[in-house]
Structure formats: structure tokens, C-alpha cells
Amino acid sequence: MTQTPRFRWYIGGLLFLSTVVNYLDRQALSVLAPHLKTEFQWNNSDFALVIIAFRAAYAIGQAGAGRLLDRIGTRAGLTIAVAFYSVAAVLTSLANGLRSFMAFRFLLGLGESANWPGATKAVSEWFPRRESGWAVALFDSGSSIGAALAPVMVLGLLSVFGTWRPVFVVVGALGFVWLVLFRRVYAKPEDHPRISDEERTLILADREGTSAPCTRRSSLSWRQLLRLPQTWGVIVGKSLTDPVWFFITDWFAVYLVARGFRLEESLLAFWVPFVAADAGNFIGGGVSSRLIRRGMRVSRARKIVITVGVVGMSCLMATVVLDSLLWITLVFAVATCAYAAVSTMVLNLPADIYWTESVATVSGLSGAGAGLGTICATYLTGLVADRYSFEPILIAASLVPLAAAAAVLLLVRNTDATAQGVIRPI
């Protein structure tokens, strides 16, 4: 088979496409939310229950999916997950009320929970650490691209079909297209026929950590991982920042309508924050990778980006005093750009610290924590929005990420456990 130069970036592209499809599936409901709320006479608390069903499965699934991926491998794990959630997305077209929507969204969340642990593990398998910031930025940017494409695609399909049911079928079928490509291309770099010996040596030498040898290579148990402060730094960092992003992806259409803007006339406003998030992925990944190449310690480079990013997220509270759609859109754009930079860094942390055999497990634990945080935030969002307004929610979304940054700065550091070789020093 013909060798392909820099083949690892083709793998990165596959992971990006997986995340795009993942977000198209989940965002279809959010874009259709105003129509579904009218048809089924849901209030915000009812809609919150549908979102919570997804988030509950996502939280449960990530911890288990991460462990499963570390045991059966990236190729088999992502194949099972994408096939499962694509079927669930298609079946959503059969929903006929609140309970059935909750059931199908639970199944979707269960399947989609493997995407981030799987992609993080794939990056640790295929990319040297000095490039991992860019690689994570690439696959994570698929979330913002998928979210940006969703309103155009979903509303376009709704216009063509005149009803929402075929929308879920078409969007859900995209996962099967991706699976065909993935199964043809993906394998571990150790024995992949498409990469050169030079690229294979580059990847494997960095993974073996020749500059910082470690005597322990087995996958650590959940108990061992949860005894390390680094693990809790990653979990808290993700758990207190992801709910802000999911508030925007799940509620932005509802928020715009609540502020008096018609969704069909606000497509640009819906689109801009997600494109800004895409830029944030690459800004965060690029800045950290550049700092590392210039000799800065990996942990310090990541933490600088996280600290600056959470400050940018705090601007969301400005929307409380703004009435212009343009200015509201710009504020959300700044916040999502900053979030994406932070997210890219937090997603990098497991691959920075742990051996490949434990990366997906740690990533899954942090995803489970983020899922639980998002469930609480979603419930409170529906409750507060119905009884008061979105203003208290936006103020809280501006302040909570500051605690996430504090957790990362204090907990993700070298310890005696690192020195003894339980995990790699950073």
C-alpha cells in the first residue's frame, strides 16, 4: 500500500468529522426546540427534562466508555459507539411526546459519550505531545463546526420536508457514512501500512517518553486514578466549564426567542458564536504548542491558556444589560471562543500526564463529571428561566469557570506519585 506523508493528520481529520457528525445529531433537537415546544406544548422545564435525559446517559456513558475504549481499543470502541448513536438519532423520528423524546435522547447520549474519550485516546496514540494541542483543537473544533452547520442544515431540511421527523433520519444517517470511511482508514500506528518508518518512529518515540522514562505501563484502576490530585484537577476543570458550553448549544435558540428575536431571522446570530468557538480551539491549541516549542513546560503552557480563557468566558454577564442582537452575538462569540481554548487545554491534560493505557479512562471520568454538572445546570436553567429570566443564569455562567481554573492551577501538578512513576511528569 502506498505510504502517505504526515498520515497522522488524516487521522486527525477523521476525528474532526466524527465530532461534526456527533454535534449535528445532538443539535438537531436544539434547533427544532422552538417548533417542538409549540407542537407538544412544552415549557422550559419540560424541555430541560429532554436535555437532562441526554446528559444523564452521557455522564453515565463517558466513565464506562473510557474504560471500555482502554480495554478493546479505539477502532472497535468508536465503531460500536457511532453505530449505536446513529441508530438512536434515526429512531428519534418516531418520538410522539415528552417521554419518548427523553427515551431516544437517553440512547443518543449513551452512544455519543464515547466520542471524546475515543478521540483523546486516538490523539495519544497518533500524535507527539508537541503536536497534541493542534490535534485536540482539530477534533474538538468539530463541535463548533457541527453546531454552526446544524441550524442551516436542520432548518433547510425542515423547509424541504415540511415536518421535523425526516430531519432526524437524514442527520442520523451521516454517522453510517463516517463509519465506512473510519473502518477503511483507522488502525494503530505500530502496524499501519500507510505511514512511513520515519513518521512511525516519531510517534512511538514520543509515546515511550524516552526523556522521562516510567516503570509502570499498566492501565490504572478507577480507585488508583481517583487518589491522584491530577485526576481531580482534570475532572473539576471540565465539570465547571462544559456546562457553560452546553447551555449555549442547548438553549441558545430558546434564549434568542425569549429575547424577542425570530430564529429564522437570526441564523447569523446563531452561527457566529460557534464559528468563534472553532477559532478558539485553534487559538488555544496553537498558543500552547508554540509555547512548548519555545521551551516552556507543558503544564505551564496549558495553564496560561486556561487562565486567560476563563477570564474571556466571564464576559457573558454583559448580555444582561445589552438589547442589540449584534452586541449579544459578539459577547457570546467572545465567550465561546474563550471556552473552546480552555476546552482544548483540558482535553489535552489526560494525554499530557497519563500513559496511553489510561488516557480514555481519565477522559471518561472528566466527561462524567461534566455530565453531572451539566445535568444540574440544565435543571436550574429550566427552573430559573420559567420563574425569572435567563439573566441569573448568564451571571452564574460567567463566574463558575473561575473556580475551574483554580482547580487546574492547584491540582494538576507534579506530586510524589509522579516522581514514583505512577504517571508521567509534565
Structure description:
Helix content is 79%, strand content 0%. The protein has 426 residues and is mainly α. The longest helix has 33 residues, at 8-40. It is globular. Residues 209-216 and 416-426 have low confidence and may be disordered.
Summary, kept brief:
With 426 residues, the chain is an all-alpha fold.
CATH architect. name: Up-down Bundle
Order of helices and strands: HHHHHHHHHHHHHHHHH
CATH C-level label? Mainly Alpha
> Beta-strand percentage?
under 5%
Total helical elements: 17
CATH superfamily: MFS general substrate transporter like domains
Distance between the termini: 37 Å
Give a count of the beta strands, DSSP E runs of length 2 or more: 0
Helicity, as a percent range: over 70%
Rg: 21 Å
So what's the overall shape? Answer: globular
Could you name the ranges where pLDDT drops below 50 across 5 or more consecutive residues?
209-216, 416-426
How many domains make up the coordinates?
A: 1
